[in-house]
User: Which sequence fits this backbone?
């Protein structure tokens, strides 16, 4: 694995390499697809396990993670990249990787639907995948208030107390920052 | 009476007189020529009339006032007169046709024509050997000139080959003449014939042989006739017509004269050469697709047949030989001239381009007449000639020749019918034109009329009395003439005729004939009803239908083999034209015709053998035939012949396509009615001849297995079809398998079942074909998977299909069960349980296709584009309603059908006959009360329906997509209608049944014959020198073979 | 004897003529072969009618009756046959000329437009 | 801008122009032509009380469950047919088609997409029909109480006869619920079908509020 | 072989009523047996009664069309018809109401009326599953029917009759006179065919409860299904009775009515049990497999039976 990372570093600039819970490397947005191609064709990571995204609303970034698997080495490698987080209804953009793995099409459709990240050129990218006729902020963006939405839409029964999810999450995860803000 | 010598004088004088005109053509010389030919025609015509009517006698014409042997003499007798009339008429017509050529070329052509005709006249009349040679040379020079009329490369090459071949032939002949003169001291044929003795024949053998072979080579024997074919192909069609009709007839007559002169010395050789030519040319013609060359092949083959017929007549001393030979040669001349003129009108050489003939639909009629006449179909002279020949041969033990003649005829049918089919069905280029002028068209129709008239005349000339009712054919002729009327009027006329004639006919029919008489007459009326719904003239439909029904009626009325066979052929011909009318029916109509003809020829052979064995051609002779030697073979021949019509396994491949592709109201005719002709014939054979066997093999036993396998495989195939009409067609094969099984049981119950199945099959197959036909018409497709859900759109059609499939599958309350029940009892009586079980399995497989039929079309999902489909038109529903009424009547009172039919059969055998107690039929094994079953069914049905209705009266009526679809909803009717490859699991398990054994077998036969033709015809290299070499070798070989050494 | 010689000559000529027809591809040569073939036949015809020591079959006075004379019929036939042969040969030559004009060759195996 | 084509419809449900075999062009509207759009009717109980009571008794003793796993609770239904619990002895049976089932067990959370299918299946069931709400999710959303995509209370969309709490409830709880349902049926109170028909507009409005692409007829017969 | 009289209508109705009850109880017993094989307690004995009454008492109903409506009627008519055309108990007038209408051929063809009705009704529903199931059913029927037919031919030759009454009569007078013992080969062929006709495992892919829900009647509900269920109670009984009559000596009228019914019950039950026995023991065939099975062994046995009968009698 170290050897592979050395090899990668010869050609690509990696901003971060972490091996805490599996190996994750972070590359630049423009390099991502060529890095994936390199990993698939040269280093033998033939299998795309998944593509997922994290909404770093505070940094105004989306983090994309491509999880790859090499059947030969029996190991996994995560490729991370950060892209600009747009303000809805603007969509963020990322290069599509469907030409490397056909399965990427579905993940990209999901990301488009749930996060509003567009992958120009990916097949059927503009068609709804899971949600039918969704007309709000993409639900996995953290500025979407799911509780409010649920209350407005789904007739909650009385007798439950709740917190605003974004504040609640902020308090839980960034207590000091929250104090500062407060 | 004008002296026949003037025939020659006029021609010669006019020819010389034409020399006075300028080379540039004008109307005057043409008119002069026409006038001369017309005068010659009148002279020969008056002689012919005079001699045939008995007012004149044959006369000798002596030149220069001397008698033979000193002078040359001509003879004018009946045969000469007729042939002269033929030649001169053909020449006159040809001159008419050549009107345009006259403008293009010079006056010399007219001179050549006249000289040519003069030569032909001379050839026919002369009795002097050397004079014959001179006339032959004149003919050959004149025709060589005519051949190269347009002086293009092809004509020049062909003409040169013709000239050198002719020169060689005449050289041989000349040597022969001089040798003969040396041995006999005379040149007069009559004198030589009178002197002829074995001793003289031995000494003068070489001379006589050379004359014989020379004459034979003039007739272009196989395989040394490449030059002849080239001539036919290259020359102007009109000239080819004259050559084919005039030259060959004259030469053939000359051949007869010389053969007569030599006292029949070379009859056997002539038979061999004739037979070889007939078969050889017909085989080689299979690969030919140039129409004029094809006609050449056919001409030569026909002449071969004539030579063969002459030789056989002489060899076997067949009665009425003159009629046989001359009927053949006259038919050939008239038909062939007609076809060549037609080729001139059409102006296309490839037989695939003949579709343009449809620009003038009326031209189809002469074309059909000519082709039928060439094939020896009734009612043309060649039919009677062939019949007499075959009967005579059979009576005198010439079976081999019968096989040869009939197989040759079948081969001829292959290419002629293919050609006709192409012309009738192929599309054509709108820009193509026909040479449609008075001069070109008149001869064609003239010959057609003459052929028809001769056919009528020759019927009385045949040596067999004929029990055929000409009124029927008269009706056909009337309809043909009235073809310009609107279809509805013609339909009324035809129905009126059938109704009027049929009433007496049905009443007059006796015994089991009456059953079929009912089917045919009633069927005709009912299947003609839909015709009222068709707008327009429907040219050709009504004459064809009338022809078919005339044949069917004739079958019932026939009292002897000839009447039967003639009706059989007429029926075949009529149905062929009907089937050919279908949209894509070209190949299927062809295979129908070929199988029918093959079957008919088997019948003919069987009849001939019966005649040979019993000396009678009455249909009753079949009873006597049961005890003569070879009776087993007779039975087998007749059975296979009839089974071809019933489409039993192995002989069925024509049926699915033919029935499926036919028009909506033609399918019920050919399926519901026509097939019964085969049942009728076979039942007649079985009842008359009883159980027969060849060696240790019992024929009915073999038939029973063929029958049940037919039923099984056909039903299986029906279940695998996507095309609804094909499904019904296969179903017909299966049902005919049951009928065959019934007949093969050879017992009262077996025959009863066969008759009952025939009746009910007639009813429900007509209904089904009408119903499915109307669905196909409304939806514009025959593929079942493209239909579906039509029950709401065509409720009546659905109802009639429902009733019919219940009847067809034999489910009890309806009429179909009676057949099944009787078969069961008959099987037990005969103890053929294994066959019975296979038949039963076939019956259950029948459910498969019946369910598919009704489900895929009427149930399931209605398609988008069928949402506005209307119910079938009234005139398609009316016959269905009538027939359904009949089904219901027979279902409520099964005894009303079974009792009279059973009584009919008690005439032949009473063993195992049903006993009736009230409404209960009791057999040796079981019992059945159809009325009780019906009432029980109705009572139960009513009660349960009532219960359901009281209980479920609040039911919400919903639409087609309101189905439970795993919590989803269907997308489109197309994807929701389960119909394509419906019985996939069955196919997976029993797919081996689908292997096209039969189709492959017949395909291989066809491929083999075509390959042989393709290979063998390479002997016609096109090189004149090779042809000469072949001729020399042919002469030498023939000499060695006839003499047995040098 | 004379008759036999004539007969043999005639047969030989016929065979030579046939040989010539069958072995030469040139149309003109074939026609020449035909002429030989024809002449041979004519000689055969004459030889058939020849009577040894016979005179011409012309009866001028009664004394000629009873003399043996050659058969006049073959001679008459030969005259006709010669005429016809001439006609045919002329016809063939016409064809040859025409064919040469159209195709520019006289080889018989070049004229195979029509076959099969 | 957002490029998502959110309001995309299923092309097969759009109106379309077809050509008849005669060449005539006409429009086919699948929603009108292929689906029955009648409203449900109220089916009052039999006026003869003993008969109705007898019928209810039979209905209670013969429970045909629609074998349709809508959520994770469906897994709890399978053991019922095993030898351990053997629900057959209480007259319970499973049918694979709504047409022949009488009891609909909603097995847990119902997302919007599932809800659409639940409504459809429920409407396709015949007769007096009963609904069992299994798990907390059917009651108040359970652990999905604030989800953007899961309904919180089932009885706003279809009438429910018996709720079973728990996450997950054990098969015994389900058996007990069936027992409760039997009692309810026998007492003649389980008229969910008629309630649905009577309050059809209200139910439909609720359903349509969450199912935004309502591409089916109002009542799926 | 009597003619018609009006009390026969009553007899026929009673026959049907009796058979419905008997069929329901039989269903309960069979269900119980199935459960015990699976070590379950199983349904209550009277569960089929609840089911069928519940189904008849359904309040709402839908109809897909005329044929859909008439399908169950055809089906039930077919089932009831077989029942009253077949002698249930020899010489008992009550159970021989319309046996004078026909013989075994009539009965074996009348079966198809029900099949056709079901197929047409299911077909009009427009559901592809119905059609798929019907094709399977017809294909399988075509396969097993041939060996049944051979067996019937064999015993027809043996007894020289195809009248069911006569066949039963010929088997009276002791257990060893049963066709089972006099013609065991034919019985073997017929009993294999019986497996196919009962639509139980391994030949139950026609119904395929989960894959194509319950086969042809997948769209049936309410009273329509109720009618089909009623038919399903009498149809197996009718078929079983036919087999008992042909191969197991039928049921004669004993002096004691009780004994007669006990014999009737035992015979039909054990013949029925044969299919249950096979059904609980074997997994399912695909359709093509079952066709191949039927055209192999049962067919061979049937042919042997016919040939043997032909030689012997």
Assistant:
């Amino acid at each position: 694995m170290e050897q592979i990372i050395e090899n990668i570093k010869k050609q690509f600039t990696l901003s971060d390499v972490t091996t805490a819970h599996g190996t994750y490397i972070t590359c630049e947005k423009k390099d991502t697809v060529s890095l994936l191609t390199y990993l698939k064709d040269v280093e033998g990571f033939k299998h795309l396990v998944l593509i997922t995204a994290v909404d770093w609303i505070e940094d105004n970034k989306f983090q994309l993670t491509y999880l790859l698997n090499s059947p030969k080495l029996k190991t996994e490698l995560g490729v991370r990249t950060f892209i600009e987080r747009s303000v809805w209804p603007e969509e963020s953009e990322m290069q599509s990787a469907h030409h490397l793995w056909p399965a990427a099409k579905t993940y990209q459709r999901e990301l488009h639907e749930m996060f509003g990240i567009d992958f120009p050129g990916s097949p059927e990218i503009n068609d709804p995948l899971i949600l039918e006729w969704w007309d709000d902020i993409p639900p996995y963006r953290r500025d979407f208030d799911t509780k409010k939405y649920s209350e407005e839409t789904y007739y909650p029964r009385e007798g439950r107390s709740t917190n605003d999810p974004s504040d609640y999450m902020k308090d839980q995860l960034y207590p000091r920052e929250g104090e500062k803000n407060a | 009476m004008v002296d026949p010598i003037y025939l020659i004088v006029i021609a010669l004088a006019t020819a010389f007189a034409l020399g006075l005109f300028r080379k540039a053509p004008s109307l005057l010389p043409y008119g002069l020529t026409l006038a001369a030919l017309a005068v010659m025609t009148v002279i020969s015509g008056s002689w012919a009339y005079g001699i045939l009517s008995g007012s004149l006698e044959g006369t000798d014409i002596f030149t220069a006032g001397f008698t033979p042997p000193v002078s040359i003499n001509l003879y004018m007798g009946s045969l000469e007169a007729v042939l002269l009339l033929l030649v001169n008429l053909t020449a006159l017509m040809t001159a008419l046709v050549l009107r345009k050529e006259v403008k293009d070329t010079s006056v010399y052509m007219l001179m050549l024509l006249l000289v040519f005709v003069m030569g032909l006249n001379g050839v026919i009349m002369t009795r002097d050997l050397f004079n014959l040679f001179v006339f032959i040379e004149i003919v050959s020079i004149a025709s060589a000139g005519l051949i190269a009329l347009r002086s293009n490369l092809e004509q020049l090459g062909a003409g040169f080959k013709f000239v050198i071949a002719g020169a060689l032939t005449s050289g041989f002949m000349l040597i022969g003449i001089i040798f003969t003169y040396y041995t006999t001291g005379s040149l007069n044929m009559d004198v030589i014939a009178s002197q002829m003795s074995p001793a003289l024949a031995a000494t003068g053998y070489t001379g006589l042989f050379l004359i014989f072979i020379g004459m034979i080579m003039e007739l272009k024997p196989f395989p040394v006739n490449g030059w002849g074919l080239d001539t036919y192909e290259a020359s102007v069609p009109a000239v080819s017509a004259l050559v084919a009709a005039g030259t060959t007839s004259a030469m053939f007559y000359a051949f007869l004269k010389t053969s007569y002169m030599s006292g029949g010395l070379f009859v056997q050789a002539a038979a061999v050469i004739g037979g070889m030519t007939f078969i050889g040319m017909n085989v080689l013609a299979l690969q030919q697709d140039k129409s004029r060359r094809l006609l050449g092949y056919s001409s030569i083959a026909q002449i071969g047949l004539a030579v063969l017929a002459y030789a056989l007549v002489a060899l076997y001393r067949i009665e009425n030989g003159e009629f046989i030979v001359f009927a053949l040669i006259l038919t050939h001349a008239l038909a062939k001239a007609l076809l060549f003129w037609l080729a001139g009108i059409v102006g296309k050489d490839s037989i695939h381009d003949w579709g343009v003939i449809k620009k003038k639909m009326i031209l189809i009629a002469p074309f059909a007449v000519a082709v039928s006449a060439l094939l020896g179909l009734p009612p043309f002279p060649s039919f009677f000639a062939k019949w007499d020949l075959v009967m005579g041969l059979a009576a005198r033990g010439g079976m081999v020749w019968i096989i040869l003649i009939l197989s040759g005829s079948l081969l001829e049918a292959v290419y002629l019918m293919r050609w006709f089919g192409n012309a009738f069905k192929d599309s054509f280029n709108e820009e193509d034109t026909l040479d449609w002028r008075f001069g070109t068209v008149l001869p064609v129709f003239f010959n057609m009329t003459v052929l028809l008239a001769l056919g009528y005349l020759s019927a009385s000339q045949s040596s067999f009395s004929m029990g055929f009712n000409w009124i029927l054919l008269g009706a056909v002729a009337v309809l043909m003439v009235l073809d310009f009327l609107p279809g509805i009027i013609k339909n009324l006329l035809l129905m009126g005729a059938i109704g009027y004639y049929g009433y007496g006919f049905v009443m007059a029919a006796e015994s089991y004939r009456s059953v079929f008489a009912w089917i045919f007459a009633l069927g005709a009326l009912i299947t003609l009803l839909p015709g009222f719904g068709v707008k327009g003239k429907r040219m050709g439909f009504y004459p064809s239908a009338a022809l078919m029904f005339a044949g069917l009626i004739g079958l019932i009325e026939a009292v002897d083999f000839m009447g039967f066979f003639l009706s059989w052929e007429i029926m075949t011909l009529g149905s062929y034209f009907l089937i050919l009318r279908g949209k894509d029916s070209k190949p299927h109509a062809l295979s129908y015709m070929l199988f029918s003809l093959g079957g008919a020829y088997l019948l003919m052979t069987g009849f001939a053998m019966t005649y040979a064995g019993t000396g009678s051609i009455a249909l009753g002779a079949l009873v006597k035939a049961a005890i003569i030697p070879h009776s087993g073979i007779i039975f087998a021949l007749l059975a296979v012949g009839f089974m071809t019509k019933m489409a039993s396994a192995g002989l069925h491949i024509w049926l699915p396509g033919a029935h499926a592709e036919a028009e909506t109201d033609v399918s019920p005719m050919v399926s519901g009615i026509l097939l019964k002709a085969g049942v009728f014939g076979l039942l007649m054979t079985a009842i008359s001849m009883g159980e027969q066997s060849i060696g240790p093999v019992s024929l009915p036993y073999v038939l029973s297995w063929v029958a049940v396998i037919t039923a099984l495989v056909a039903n299986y195939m029906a279940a695998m079809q996507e095309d609804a009409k094909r499904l019904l067609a296969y179903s017909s094969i299966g049902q005919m398998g049951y009928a065959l099984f019934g007949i093969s049981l050879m017992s009262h119950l077996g025959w009863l079942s066969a008759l009952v199945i025939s009746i009910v099959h007639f009813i429900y197959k007509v209904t089904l074909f009408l119903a499915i036909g109307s669905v196909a018409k409304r939806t514009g497709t025959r593929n079942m998977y493209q239909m579906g859900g039509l029950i709401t759109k065509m409720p009546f059609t659905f109802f009639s299909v429902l009733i019919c499939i219940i009847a067809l599958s034999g489910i009890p309350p309806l009429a179909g069960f009676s057949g099944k029940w009787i078969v069961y009892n008959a099987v037990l009586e005969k103890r053929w349980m294994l066959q019975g079980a296979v038949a039963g399995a076939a019956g259950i497989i029948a459910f498969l296709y019946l369910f598919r039929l009704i489900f895929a079309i009427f149930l399931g999902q209605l398609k988008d584009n069928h949402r506005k489909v209307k119910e079938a038109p009234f005139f398609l529903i009316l016959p269905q309603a009538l027939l359904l009424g009949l089904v219901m009547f027979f279902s409520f009172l099964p005894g009303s059908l079974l009792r009279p039919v059973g009584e009919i059969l008690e005439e032949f055998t009473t063993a195992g006959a049903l006993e009736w107690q009230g409404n209960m039929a009791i057999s040796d094994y079981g019992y059945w009360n159809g009325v009780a079953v019906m009432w029980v069914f109705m009572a139960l049905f009513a009660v349960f329906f009532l219960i359901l209705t009281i209980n479920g009266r609040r039911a919400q009526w919903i639409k087609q997509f309101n189905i439970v679809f795993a919590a989803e909803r269907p997308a489109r009717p197309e994807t929701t209608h389960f119909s394509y490859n419906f019985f996939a699991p069955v196919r997976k398990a029993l797919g081996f049944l689908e292997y096209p054994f039969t189709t492959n077998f017949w395909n291989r036969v066809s491929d083999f014959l075509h390959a042989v033709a393709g290979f063998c015809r390479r002997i016609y290299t096109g090189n004149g020198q090779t042809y000469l070499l072949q001729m020399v070798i042919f002469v030498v070989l023939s000499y060695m073979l006839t003499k047995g050494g040098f | 004897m004379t008759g036999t010689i004539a007969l043999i000559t005639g047969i030989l000529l016929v065979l030579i003529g046939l040989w010539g027809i069958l072995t030469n591809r040139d149309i003109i040569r074939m026609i020449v072969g035909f002429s030989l073939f024809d002449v041979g036949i004519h000689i055969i015809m004459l030889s058939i009618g020849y009577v040894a020591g016979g005179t011409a079959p012309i009866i001028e006075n009664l004394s000629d009756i009873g003399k043996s004379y050659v058969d006049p019929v073959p001679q008459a036939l030969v005259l006709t046959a010669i005429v016809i042969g001439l006609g045919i040969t002329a016809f063939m030559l016409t064809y040859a000329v025409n064919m040469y004009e159209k195709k520019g060759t006289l080889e018989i195996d070049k004229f195979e437009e029509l076959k099969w | 801008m957002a490029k998502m084509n959110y309001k995309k419809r299923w092309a097969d449900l759009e109106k379309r122009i077809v050509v008849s075999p005669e060449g005539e062009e006409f429009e086919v509207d699948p929603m009108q032509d292929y689906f029955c759009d009648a409203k449900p009717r109220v089916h009052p109980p039999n006026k003869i009380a003993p008969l109705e009571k007898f019928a209810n008794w039979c209905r209670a003793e013969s429970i045909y469950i629609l074998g349709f796993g809508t959520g994770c609770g469906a897994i709890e239904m399978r053991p019922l047919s095993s030898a351990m619990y053997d629900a057959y002895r209480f007259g319970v049976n499973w049918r694979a088609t709504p047409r022949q089932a009488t009891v609909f067990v909603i097995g847990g959370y119902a997302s919007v997409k599932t809800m659409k299918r639940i409504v459809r299946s429920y409407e396709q069931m015949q007769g007096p029909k009963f609904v069992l709400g299994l798990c907390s999710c059917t009651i108040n959303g359970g652990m999905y109480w604030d989800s953007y995509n899961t309904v919180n209370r089932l009885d706003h969309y279809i009438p429910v006869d018996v709720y079973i709490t728990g996450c997950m409830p054990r098969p015994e709880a389900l058996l007990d619920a069936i027992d409760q349902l039997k009692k309810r049926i026998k007492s003649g109170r389980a008229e969910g079908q008629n309630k649905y028909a009577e309050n059809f507009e209200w139910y439909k409005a609720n359903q349509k509020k969450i199912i935004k692409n309502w591409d089916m007829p109002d009542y799926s017969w | 072989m009597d003619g018609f009289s009006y009390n026969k209508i009553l007899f026929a109705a009673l026959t049907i009523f009796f058979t419905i009850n008997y069929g329901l109880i039989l269903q309960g017993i069979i269900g119980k047996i199935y459960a015990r094989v699976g070590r379950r307690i199983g349904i209550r004995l009277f569960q089929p009664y609840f089911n069928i009454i519940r189904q008849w008492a359904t309040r709402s109903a839908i109809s897909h069309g005329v044929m859909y409506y008439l399908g169950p009627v055809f089906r039930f008519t077919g089932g009831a018809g077989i029942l009253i055309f077949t002698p249930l108990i020899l010489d008992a007038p009550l159970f021989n109401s319309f046996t004078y209408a026909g013989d075994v051929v009539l009965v074996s063809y009348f079966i198809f009326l029900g099949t056709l009705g079901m197929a047409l009704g299911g077909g009009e529903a427009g559901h592809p599953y119905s059609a798929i199931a019907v094709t399977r059913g017809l294909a399988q029927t075509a396969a097993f029917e041939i060996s049944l037919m051979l067996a019937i031919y064999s015993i027809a030759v043996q007894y020289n009759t195809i009248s069911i009454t006569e066949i039963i009569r010929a088997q009276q007078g002791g257990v060893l006179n049963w066709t089972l013992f006099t013609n065991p080969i034919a019985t073997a062929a017929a009993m294999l065919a019986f497996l196919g006709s009962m639509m139980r495992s391994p030949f139950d892919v026609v119904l395929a409860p989960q894959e194509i829900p319950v086969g042809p009647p997948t769209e049936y509900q309410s009273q329509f299904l109720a009618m089909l269920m009623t038919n399903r109670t009498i149809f197996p009984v009718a078929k079983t009775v036919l087999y008992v009559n042909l191969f197991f000596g039928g049921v004669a009228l004993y002096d004691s009515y009780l004994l007669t019914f006990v014999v009737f019950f035992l015979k039909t039950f054990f013949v029925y049990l044969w299919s249950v026995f096979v059904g609980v023991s074997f997994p399912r065939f695909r359709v093509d497999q079952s066709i191949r099975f039927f055209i192999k062994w049962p067919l061979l046995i049937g042919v042997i039976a016919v040939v043997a009968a032909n030689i012997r009698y």
Remarks:
- The mean pLDDT of chain E is 89.
- Strands of chain E lie at 62-63.
- Chain E touches chain D through 31 residues (CB under 8 Å).
- The two ends of chain E are 26 Å apart (CA to CA).
